[in-house]
Amino acid sequence: MDDAGKRKALGDFIKTQRTQLASAELNLSGSSRRRTPGLRREEVAQLCGISVTWYTWIEQGRTVSVSTAALARIADALHLSRAKRAYLFELSGKKDPQSRDTAGQEIPDEILAITANIKTPAYLLDRHWNAVAWNRAAKTLFVGWLDQKTGSKNLLEYTYSTPSAAILISDWEQRARRLVAEFRADCGMYLDEPQIADLVTRLSANSATFKRAWSLHDVIEKEGGERRFNHPTLGQLAYRQVNLRVANRPELKLVMLLPD
User: Fold this and answer.
1) Residue % of the chain over a pLDDT of 70
2) CB of 133 within 8 A of CB of 154?
3) Residue 45 CB contacts under 8 Å (≥ 6 apart), including other chains
4) Could you tell me the domains of the chain?
5) Cα–Cα distance measured from residue 43 to residue 189, given in angstroms and rounded to the nearest whole number
6) What PROSITE patterns has UniProt attached to this entry (predicted)?
7) Against a cut of 0.85, is the pTM above it?
8) Residues 118-135: pLDDT tens digits?
9) Looking at residue 107, what DSSP letter applies?
10) Is the distance from CB of 170 to CB of 230 less than 8 angstroms?
């Protein structure tokens, strides 16, 4: 969907929610004498504290950009459910400032069990790309990272700061550069968070290769595909990578390496 299509979809969604919301729920005057259901644009604009003209442009898909604050006020004014509110911000391509942040919460036991019982290498990444769970096969494969009791479990930090990673990962330079572009795409909404800012600062200071890759501002969607490794004891290994997001914890990504 192009930008015009996204603006239209956003406007259509807001309009349908407006027309479906009963004015009586908001105790607005004249609600009992309405000829059409729902709220009028003027009423929603008043509730949101924005001009009627601008609100009309939003519904008509004529605005180039709508701020997160305006979207939040619209969501509140229309009494959107959590799912509808999330959909509103997804259409806009913006992060909801009041979104339920599940980062740091305990990982459900069933997710840990699934990861542990996968027969091929599998690991779970949080939104900062820290490995928070992995199975025995992944521990065996990723020497210098998941087999260590101490040390950073961040995938980027392992790739750029651990000497064994450059040996283990085939085509390390190409793969490492791509990881930076995938990380930027995946964490674009969180780049101002201290944990990510500190990670970027630290890697830029310790790795000229990372610093160059980060300065390119390249963005690539995180994909699967062939992954080859030069394991110190198992020799040459080839896998097909598959990435899955956890439905009720979208900041978690399950990465599986299936035998090629």
Assistant:
1) 90
2) no
3) 51, 52, 54, 55
4) 3-92 (1.10.260.40), 109-259 (3.30.450.180)
5) 32
6) HTH_CROC1
7) no
8) 999 999 999 899 999 999
9) P
10) yes
